[in-house]
Amino acid sequence: MTASYAPLYSQHLAALRSRTDQALELAGYDHLVVAAGLPPRKFLDDQDYPFVASPHFRHWLPLTDAPGSWIVYTPGAKPTLLFLQPRDYWHVVPEAPSGYWTEHFEIVVIRQASEAAAHLPGKGRSAVIGPDGQEPLSGIAVNNPQAVLDYLHWYRSYKTPYELALMREANRHGARAHRAAARAFREGASELGIHQAYLAAAAAIDAELPYASIVALNQHGAVLHYTHFDRTPPTQSRSFLIDAGANAAGYASDITRTYAAPGHQAFQALIDDVDRAQQGFAVKVRAGQSYPELHIHAHHVLAGVLREHGVLRLSAESAVESGVSAAFFPHGLGHPIGLQVHDVAGFQQSERGGSIPRPAGHPYLRMTRTLEPGMVVTIEPGLYFIDMLLAELRDKPIAAEIDWAKVDAFRPYGGIRIEDDVVCTDDAPENLTRDAFAQLAEG
Ligand code: GLY
Ligand code: MN
Ligand code: MN
């Protein structure tokens, strides 16, 4: 965190206040009250799961470790932070807030979660945003009005310059850690060893990452959400797929890279072609581009890659129409990203809510909107050799159009995914992830 965030933050807060003023007026509320939330308690235990502050709370300030705190905002007035700083010698107590953002808040320190209720606005209607089910501790009832959420979620799609600066930083942290993980792979580490190298380079613990890392050697790359960590290295590491991100003041990066071990040329050539295809999709992140159309375009290009590598004999068009491409690329091209790795409003029709359906036959696509400046999306095409999906394909007449010997030769490598976080601008896209890797290479 550097001083240069200060002017960007003022601008961000002004934008957020003005959006909130609109949301409240539209929905008929006088105040916004936002919970950071509390860590969920383990069943029949006195231990908690890791705390993650609510994204609405983190939208207002770069405070990720503030369980039990609240923001109270009334249009026209300085926002208040009710900051929970318990008297507690058992745990590390959050430090008194400091930094570039504090001058923009009235900060009221409370000593118990239950004290927050006394500081709520006395008159008028409050939209109270937060996780439900935590009322017994705070005494404040959340109501999460849909109209307020819809409006705020819609505008969260358009990142402020402050948010983009933090997402650049999240990508720099992620790229640095990816580089360490790739080194550990080359040195023959186990999945757990690679994961530990990643965490060390990110200077993070698991709970601070935006999502559970996927560290997959060999055929484990075929498990889309492989979050197991083998403790011992395989006898031979042929391939390595890593999908892991990092956080900067509550903003996420989401990055995937795939590597082949030396000597595995056929798989390396397939990676190179998926990488080229991925960069081709990333440059299409431009205002006016329909994201679902880009997803379908990706199916055609990836089917062409499979054809060039001799896996498919049918045309790319037939492969997409018949569903064959979906057996090898069975997830969406990507999703919005920001305060949450799978950010809100990917399907939203307007600031008043509504939903844009997915195209038929693409049940896992997480983004159906048309791209506009300020949006940040991931572009994450993949090709996988997934036993379950291949078995289904093999039972169909179209199986004759597939070279099963080639498929079998690729199975031990699992799969390929390449994922970048890309900003749609008024002009050429900004690829946060490629830029971060390039900066590392220069440094
Ligand atoms: N890491 C989850 C995803 O790529 O969407
Ligand atoms: Mn992703
Ligand atoms: Mn990912």
Please characterize this protein's 3D structure.
By secondary structure, the protein is of the alpha+beta class. The protein folds into 2 domains: 3-156, Creatine Amidinohydrolase, Chain A, domain 1 (3-Layer(aba) Sandwich), CATH 3.40.350.10; 161-442, Creatine Amidinohydrolase (Alpha-Beta Complex). It has helices spanning 5-27, 55-60, 135-138, 146-156, 161-186, 191-202, 265-282, 291-308, 316-321, 324-328, 387-394, 404-410, 432-442; strands spanning 31-35, 70-73, 80-84, 106-110, 126-129, 214-217, 239-244, 247-248, 251-252, 255-260, 348-350, 353-355, 376-379, 382-384, 415-417, 420-423, 430-431. The strands form 6 sheets. A 5-stranded mixed sheet has the order 4-3-2-1-5. α1 (5-27) packs across α5 and α5 (161-186) runs antiparallel to α6. The longest helix has 26 residues, at 161-186. The chain is globular. The model has no long low-confidence stretch (mean pLDDT 96). Bound molecules: glycine (GLY) and manganese (II) ion (2 copies). Residues 254, 334-335, 378, 380, 419 line the site of one manganese (II) ion.
The number of domains is 2
Name the hetero compounds present: glycine, manganese (II) ion
Name the CATH superfamily assignment of the largest domain: Creatinase/methionine aminopeptidase superfamily
Gap between N and C termini: 19 Å
- Strand share of the residues? 5-15%
Uncertain runs: none
Order of strands side by side in the largest beta sheet? 4-3-2-1-5
Helix content: 25-40%
Q: What is the count of DSSP helices, taking H or I runs of 4+ residues?
A: 13
* CA-based shape: globular
Task: List the quaternary state of the chains.
Answer: single chain
Integer average pLDDT: 96
